[in-house]
Design goal:
With 267 residues, the chain is an alpha/beta fold. The protein has 2 domains: 62 residues, Winged helix-like DNA-binding domain superfamily/Winged helix DNA-binding domain (Arc Repressor Mutant, subunit A); 192 residues, Rossmann fold (3-Layer(aba) Sandwich). It is built from 10 helices and 15 strands. The strands form 4 sheets. The chain has a 7-stranded parallel beta sheet with strand order 6-5-4-9-12-14-15, sandwiched between helices. Strands 1-3-2 form a 3-stranded antiparallel beta sheet. Helix 1 packs across helix 3 and helix 5 runs antiparallel to helix 10. It is globular, with a radius of gyration of 19 Å.
């Protein structure tokens, strides 16, 4: 990752919470600890953040605590062709008129490109997904209520009496921070709380993750493998990871990139 992009992620992180540790920045940027310490030192000298023991904090403390994790705009550029191929396979599971839930995320966002010719009731907590579907499709779109988290482009509510409880879905499509033997993992308690409500409204849970997510972990578990009906990933999945899903009774779909997606990756 380029230095400029790392600095952007670090500065965004310190605006989202009071103190961000070096390890959290390492996870967000996928860089070494030494690199992050140099970045913190440089930004401290530039007076863009304040270096503290074990991490950094904002010069002006944030008024609003955001979500843990990388911004949507950064995640969008990572494994982009794999995400598009995965999203294409996800939409193949959908039948016209079938109600679905699409949880906010950069992989699930790619579904919008393949939903343009469909007519379905779609519930989402994502501004970008709702906006694209409204502009480029005839689908019926319902947005959740709650607080808008700008960096992740997502709407979340901690309350039980929101509109989520009034929508039924044949399937829910979602991504995750990580996927392992214990199940689906996320990085923020508020995400867990909001996503569990959505999962309860769907018959089947379909997880869209590029193969790198099988090697990532978080301290928070959203649900066990037994709740997942289908996992769609790319051909980078390892045999032991495929075996883990098979043992748990989870259907595995491996998405292959088209020639067009391959060429966009090389470009």
């Amino acid at each position: 990752m380029h230095e400029k992009e790392r600095h952007r992620i670090i500065l965004s992180a310190v605006q989202e919470k009071p103190v961000v540790t070096v390890q959290e920045m390492v996870d967000l940027t996928e860089s070494s600890e030494a690199t992050i310490r140099r970045d913190i030192a440089a930004l401290h000298v530039q007076k863009r953040l304040r270096r503290v023991r074990g991490g950094a904090e904002a010069i002006s403390p944030p008024q609003f605590i955001g979500l843990a994790g990388r911004p949507f705009s950064v995640n969008e550029t990572i494994n982009a062709s794999q995400k598009r191929a995965i999203a294409r396979e996800a939409v193949e599971l959908c039948g016209d008129g079938e109600p679905i839930i699409i949880n906010g995320g950069t992989t699930t966002f790619q579904m919008v490109h393949f939903l343009t010719g469909r007519r379905m009731p779609i519930f989402t907590n994502s501004f970008p997904i709702a906006e694209h579907l409204l502009k480029h499709s005839k689908n019926t779109v319902m947005l959740s209520g709650g607080t808008i988290y700008r960096e992740q482009n997502i709407i979340l509510s901690p309350f039980d009496n929101d509109v989520t409880r009034n929508f039924y879905a044949r399937r829910m499509f979602m991504g995750a921070q990580g996927l392992g033997p214990l199940g689906l993992m996320e990085g923020d308690p508020l995400l867990i709380q909001a996503e569990q409500k959505l999962i309860d409204q769907a018959d089947e849970l379909v997880v869209l993750v590029d193969s790198s997510k099988f090697r990532k972990r978080s301290s928070l578990i959203l649900c066990g493998l037994s709740r997942i009906a289908t996992v769609i990933t790319d051909d980078g999945i390892e045999d032991r990871e495929a075996k883990m899903l098979e043992t748990a009774g989870v259907t595995l779909i491996v998405a292959r990139k088209t020639a067009k997606e391959e060429s966009s990756l090389q470009a």
